[in-house]
Task: structure prediction
Amino acid sequence: MAKLKITLVNSTIGRKKDQKLTAIALGLTKLNKTVVQLDNPQMRGMVNKISHLVTCEEISE
Result:
């Protein structure tokens, strides 16, 4: 199953509360932190919501 490598590249300071909470739910608490999540519609939706704050790559296993 494919996975997503998500990195927080822009700060959440001054962003809307729902965007901050989305970043926290993904596990992105600090700038330049990278997490690996499963590639499913829920994660894609969360990444899409904060796409201006993160970079995302697909990785396969």
